Structures are given as C-alpha cells and as structure tokens.
C-alpha cells in the first residue's frame, strides 16, 4: 500500500471540493478501536475539504462505521440506511459504510440486494483507501466495493482528527489470533498485526506535544503486542515503560488484555510505571471452568483467580474491571453460579455485562445446546443486581477520601459543574474554575451516587 498515493487523492478531492463548504457526518458503532478508526476517517475527510456536522440532513457525505460483535447493530444499520435513501436521491449525498460488519458475507449480500444505492463499502483492512474510493465516486459516480479478505498492512502517515482534546487513543495492534468460540472479531479483523514501536512512540509524543494528558493504548489483545525491536521494544511491558517516559502524558490506560498473556513482566511494568492507571481491565467472560474451556479462553476459574490475586498483591491500589457473557451455549445454573462466585470474590470496580449473542460463522453459533432466552435474561438480571450492589458498596468507600482527578471539561448535564475521572475511572463532578480543565488535581470526595462521585475543592 502506497500512502503517498492516498495523500495525492486527498489533495485531488480537496481541490474538487474547494470553496464548496461541504459537510460530513459519521456514525460510529462499537468499541474504542472503531472510535479510533472513525477519527482516522474524520482526519482524511477534513483534509479533503469536508467539515463535520452532527446533522445528517446537512451532510454531503454520510459514513457508517459498523460493529458486529453483538446483536441489534444490524437492524440499526438497515434502519438508518432506509432513512438516508431519500436524501441521497434528492441531493446526491454520498453514502459510505465501513467497519467490521462489512467483513461479513451475509451483510454484504444483503446490502447488494436491498440497499444497492450505497456508494462506498469498505472494510476494516481498507480504511486508508477512502480518499481513492471517494475520488472515484465523485468523478465517475460509480459504486465502490473495496473489501480485502486477507489481512491488511499496518498503515502509517495518514491524518487523524481526534474527538477529544484531553484524552486520546492510540491503536498499537490490530486483529486477534485467539478465536474465542463466541467471538466474530478474528474473522472480521484478521490476524494480529502490531505497529512498529517507533510509530507508536512518535504518535504518543505528538499528542503529548498537542497538550493531551491521557492516552489509551488500543488493541484486541494488547498484551500480545510484538514490537520489531526498534527502540529496544519487543513486547507490551517494554512499550508500557517507554510510553511512561513521555513528558506531558499524565495517564496511561490500555484495553483489552487477555488473562492468558498477563505475564509477570506486564504486572511489574504496571506496578513500576507511575502514569499507568491502576484500574486494569481483565476480561473474565465466564467463571465456570467448563464454559471457559468451550469458549476456548485457555484459563480455568482457579487460574483466573490466582492471576487476579497475584496482581492485587504486587500492584498497590489495584482495581479491576471485566467483561462477562451470560448464556453461552451449555451454560447451566451451576456454571452461572461460578461466574457470580468470581464476581463476589474479585469485587470489580466495573463489570461490562453481555447476553450471549450468536454470531454467524463462529463455533458458538453451531453449538446445539443454546440457552433459552428467558434463562439468559434471568441470569443477566441476577448478575446485574449483584454488580450494582457491589458498585454501590464500593462507591461508599470513596467518600471521605481524596482522589487524583483528571479534569476533562464541563459536566454534560450541568454547565455549572466540572467533570473528571479518578485513576480508577470513576466520574467525579464538582464545582470549580474552568482553568482546571486538563489538569490532574486532588479532590476530596463528599458524596456518592450510582454513576458518579461528588467532589468539593
Ligand atoms: N455475545 C455476547 N458478548 C460478546 N462479546 C464478544 N462476543 C460476544 C457475543 N457473541 C463481548 C465479550 C468481549 C466484549 C468486547 O464483547 O465480553 O470481551
Ligand atoms: Fe474476541 Fe477472544 Fe479475540 Fe477478544 S481475545 S477479540 S474475545 S476472540
């Protein structure tokens, strides 16, 4: 892939668009990796002369960046496409869809059959070709389908337009080799590809210079990151230590690691690096050794607990968050009790709970012992009640403490208040002068509420 070529297309489209005051809107589904991809798409579009609008009717280009990890997204996408068909007919709006769903054959077939007005379809491996695709649509008004089944290369050197000016995310690797049996990601994002450590460090240095304070390192499986040796970095722990040295950055987070790759050197790096937040996301998925085996997670209940306890011992002030799926095929009430047991033992800071959703093409979808919907929902509600009672209890522990808070801006619900987050990612709302925004300050916590803490300076 030739980046220069795409930069040329950016220039060409920019010339065609000059003086036309064109706008784009981008609708992003799914995880932080997709959000980060959308920032890259925005960067390309803005360099081609489009400015961002939240208002779909004003847009000359509409982009849907899709996710296919769980259900609903498909219905949502097709609903939205129905809405914009008329706009395209009336004012020639360019419609483009990209993201994980575009790597699924049954979705592409459906778009070709029932939504053939879509101008550009591009996949997860061809994001960087948007300038060329757009150029061809503008000049030839032909429909473009630009999807690669094989893994794309790691592309460097294209522009990016970030959504926030205090927190930024930096993708360090793409794809996944694990094939957990419920998960579609390895099929739509391909095999693991790590970025050159030099490129990662350059990007973090660059955002630090722009004034960003927090960086989140992103990847489907960050702790299997493999550096090519540049800057002496070959693995994730070394990358963490290098990022920790970058002046200006005050906080480092990362998602998602896999418990099976949580080696001692990673634990030590988290402990040693003062900027690395001590809230670690450690996806459990299930607490039952039987289910974990069928999920192909490569650890048992006991091994997970051992790892979590080891981390707690070695890293002072460690808190954990997790992902849990309820209702995976074959899950019995007894298996589910094991999940509850782990949740009770670990006392997570945050639990992201999901009802198992069948994904076409995954082994889980072919299993015959699917759990009835009502059982899934009953278990989900039980887990939710446990988690909420734990969060409630945990929040109480914050009252009376002083927390280091990165002040992010004005509160969305109340213009008078500022809002920020603790190291453990709890939202703290408080009254204070605007010039605190972008600083890490110590705030006494005076009261707790389900989804935020109240501070007073
Ligand atoms: N059904 C439900 N949840 C899923 N996840 C991934 N695939 C599925 C699925 N088929 C959840 C996992 C993962 C998170 C990002 O999404 O918990 O960690
Ligand atoms: Fe999916 Fe498992 Fe890979 Fe995570 S590690 S992206 S859950 S296959």
In short:
The chain has helices at residues 3-17, 32-47, 73-91, 105-114, 130-140, 185-189, 197-209, 236-244, 264-272, 289-294, 301-314, 333-346, 363-366, 373-398; strands at 22-28, 50-52, 61-66, 94-99, 120-122, 144-146, 167-171, 173-174, 193-194, 214-218, 251-255, 279-281, 319-326, 350-355, 402-410, 417-422, 427-431, 440-449, 452-455. It has 457 residues and is an alpha/beta fold.
Task: Explain this structure.
- The chain has 457 residues and is of the alpha/beta class.
- It has 3 domains: 3-146, 3-Layer(aba) Sandwich (Rossmann fold); 167-395, Alpha-Beta Horseshoe (pyruvate-formate lyase- activating enzyme), CATH 3.80.30.20; 402-455, OB fold (Dihydrolipoamide Acetyltransferase, E2P) (Beta Barrel), CATH 2.40.50.
- The chain is 37% helix and 21% strand.
- It contains 14 helices and 19 strands.
- It has helices spanning 3-17, 32-47, 73-91, 105-114, 130-140, 185-189, 197-209, 236-244, 264-272, 289-294, 301-314, 333-346, 363-366, 373-398, and strands at 22-28, 50-52, 61-66, 94-99, 120-122, 144-146, 167-171, 173-174, 193-194, 214-218, 251-255, 279-281, 319-326, 350-355, 402-410, 417-422, 427-431, 440-449, 452-455.
- The strands form 5 sheets. A 6-stranded parallel sheet has the order 2-1-3-4-5-6, with helices on both faces. The chain has a 5-stranded mixed β-barrel with strand order 15-16-17-19-18. Strands 7-10-11 form a 3-stranded parallel sheet.
- Helix 4 (105-114) links the parallel strand 4 and strand 5.
- The chain is globular.
- The relative contact order is 0.08.
- 5'-deoxyadenosine (5AD) binds next to strand 13.
